[in-house]
Write a structure and sequence with these properties.
The chain is of the alpha/beta class and 309 residues long. It is 10% helix and 25% strand. Strand 9 and strand 10 form a beta hairpin. It is globular, with a radius of gyration of 20 Å. The protein starts with 7 loop residues before the first helix and ends in an 8-residue tail after the last strand.
């Protein structure tokens, strides 16, 4: 996902074997099938990486369904899998109480020893722009490689929880963060000048692997990074830990301590196992003492953060 960027699913699919898909339009919450060119109706992919994903469907109780329309692969974590559907969407999933009767494909992949995981950085060549939006005092730009940049001077808007938006067929006007629904964000860079990240701003960016937060951000709204389960690198350039849950309408008004789950994944221990917090030199102690940030077991200086290559 991180290598493929925008439309990763289409790049992973085989060039043949996928059923045609429906072309639909949405109007006030209702959908209907419409005529569209063959290039849009075809469910086949471009197979740019030689992965040649075939639509093997899913297995349950000794039978298969959705063959030709969908593919699923187990990960190396029990109960977690990736799914690629006929709309070119690739997403990760997790089931509770999985039984041994579920069936999914297996594809063996391996990390190359000694090669660091790539994190999108400022030194990467500029990719093509897919779309830009206004969000509060900021401008949000989505690029073809999956990178999302937030620039401007002032506060970034928040958003409603994603389950509300999905039921309403979200539009730009709903919350000024439509990238979570329409575009697969693999990394976020917030540029200096942005002072606040709104509540639920990136809620649902489940394939985002890294986020860079500048020195100017002083507070982060509640649930800003909920369900960002693929986060591995959280790079913060502010030596003073930003306030967690600051000015969020979802902020919990109780006496309980602030925790990482107030802005990150609700089951945030899943992220703590894999993600690392990278902070300025001589500020590790401040983050280890700050509510919420101290929940991270891995806190390192910025110099050790993964670099783009």
């Amino acid at each position: 996902i991180r290598v493929g960027g925008y439309k990763t699913g289409k790049k992973l699919k085989s060039k043949t074997g996928w059923d045609d898909r429906e072309c639909r339009e949405y109007d006030h919450g209702y959908s209907r099938e419409i005529d569209c060119p063959d290039s849009l109706r075809s469910g086949n992919g471009t197979d740019e990486f030689g992965f040649s994903a075939l639509p093997g469907g899913e297995g349950e109780e000794n039978h298969y369904r959705y063959v030709g329309k969908m593919a699923q692969w187990w990960t190396n974590v029990f109960g977690e899998w990736y799914q690629l559907d006929n709309r070119d969407e690739l997403e990760d999933n997790r089931c509770i109480g999985c039984r041994g009767s579920e069936g999914a494909s297996v594809r063996c992949v391996q990390d190359i020893p000694g090669v660091p995981e790539k994190v999108v950085g400022f030194d990467d060549p500029p990719p093509s722009i897919v779309k830009s939006w206004e969000s509060g005092a900021t401008t949000v730009t989505f690029y073809a490689n999956g990178l999302l940049k937030v620039s401007g001077n002032g506060e970034m808007d928040g958003c409603n929880p994603p389950w509300v938006e999905y039921s309403r067929f979200p539009s730009v006007a709903d919350c000024n963060s439509p990238w979570r629904v329409y575009y697969p964000v693999t990394a976020v860079i917030i540029e200096d000048g942005v002072t606040h990240i709104g509540s639920h701003a990136f809620d649902g960016c489940h394939i985002m692997s890294s986020v860079t937060i500048p020195n100017s951000v002083a507070s982060i709204g509640g649930s800003a990074f909920h369900y960002c389960t693929s986060l591995r690198s959280i790079i913060i350039r502010n030596p003073n830990p930003p306030e967690i849950g600051g000015r969020s309408r979802m902020r919990i008004q109780s006496s309980r301590p602030v925790s990482a789950s107030d802005i990150f994944e609700k089951d945030y221990e899943k992220i703590m196992e894999k993600a690392c917090l990278y902070v300025p030199a001589n500020s590790i102690d401040a983050y280890r003492a700050a509510d919420g940030w101290k929940d991270f077991s891995c806190i390192k200086e910025l110099e050790s953060a993964p670099k783009g290559n």
